[in-house]
Amino acid sequence: MAQTAQEITPLDYTRYDFKNPETYSVRIPKGLSLEVVEKISEIKKEPEWVREYRRRAYRHFVERPMPDWGPDLSEIDFDAFTYYADAIGDDRPKRSWDDLPADIKNTFDRLGIPKAEREFFGGVGAQYDSGTVYHKIREDLAKKGVIFCDTDTAVRDYPEIVQKYFGKVIPYNDNKFAALNSAVWSGGSFVYVPPGVDVGIPLQAYFRINARNVGQFERTLIIADRGAKVHYIEGCTAPIYSTDSLHAAVVEVVAEPYAKIRYTTVQNWSKNVYNLVTKRAVAYENALVEWVDGNMGSKVTMKYPSVYLKGRGARADILSVAFASQGQIIDSGAKAVHSAPDTSSKIVSKSIAIRGGQTSYRGLLHVAKGATGVKAAVRCDALLPDEESRSDTYPYNEIHEEDATITHEAVVGKIGEEQIFYLMSRGLSESDAIHLILMGFLAEFAKELPVDYALELNRLIQLEMAGAVG
Q1: Contact criterion met (CB below 8 Å) for 134 and 126
Q2: Rounded Cα distance, 79 and 153, in Å
Q3: How far is 378 from 344, CA to CA, in rounded Å?
Q4: What is the per-residue pLDDT across 395-435, written as a single tens digit (0 to 9) for each?
Q5: Tell me, what DSSP letter sits at residue 160?
Q6: Using the 8-state DSSP alphabet, how is residue 82 labeled?
Q7: What is this structure's pTM?
Q8: Cα angle at 371 between 367 and 376, to 5 degrees?
Q9: Taking a C-beta distance cutoff of 8 angstroms, is the pair 283, 439 a contact?
């Protein structure tokens, strides 16, 4: 008798839905004001240029209206969140796992972070609410000049590099949530790879929201200098509460000439988190930027990884996946902006909506006048296994140059009864048959993930499918 997927892998949400006591060294009261912004900067003992940047960003946030497109965000009460909660309160994150408080160490033990450090990655960072609690990089990489630390530490220790790039890819006035992040940001990852250095093995960061009604606003800045190569991976989780949390990150990526950067993220926020992030890269001459972007969990997600191709021969490869279940809206996609000749981009978007979930692809393909010889392809595939779910596509193609080769295709499909029948005739249950079809649909994405993350994706799909049929 064939085993079911539920028998093979225990369906246990407690791997993610566990909470530690809300004991914090520093926790600012709820509410957003200029005083709160100033307090965050004061706690961090930041230089004046950062303080002034925060002030300008806050004023822009207050003046900027909410987006009038996309999912409904009218229920967000910005005064209902805590904007800074630090569990350990130290100026610098720990570099020894044993130095962490027991409850925080237990959190990341359960999520597999120490195992990742020992077995797979060249560097590991862990952020817990507002504070980066742990950061470490392998000594051999540090000797090559690779910098991997939290962004707060980078402001103190590498001010010349930070000031050169910070806010240049995504200015504080880019959108309302970029302004919010720029005003209250804390933590995040800073990566700098010197010219010609190949990091070789991935760097990983993990972001965890623990407390109720806490916002997390990490600020990540990744720079690969001329001819450098790096792969950065991040994961995100949060426990389930009856009230909402807010995640509004900003990620800036810079690929200097001939550099290669891959950015992989698999999020599994709980279904009470608003996930409203801005992620953008610039690629200069003959550079390559790859986004591998997985979106699961959250109440509402709005995320559109972008690559601005600014040098001749620059390339972008974006693979975006969305999985929405009951009560979830995943509005995601990608943007490729070609402003230099002989640039190329490929965008592949895959989405699955079940149990009344909603997915949307929202993308931009822009070719500037004078950007000759551009080659770009966009493909959107959506799968709707039931009658109550929804998928939408909002592609924007702005082509201002005749010498360009552009393709776009979009397909929405359902799971055929004959597929299910065939697999069930081979001994699978209906639930397992559907799960197998879904994983086949996502195979293009899963094969790009490290093994641990691919297994995690499989487990998360199983969790969502439990009880969805039959």
Answers
A1: yes
A2: 28
A3: 11
A4: 999 999 999 999 998 887 777 677 777 778 888 877 777 76
A5: H
A6: B
A7: 0.85
A8: 50
A9: no
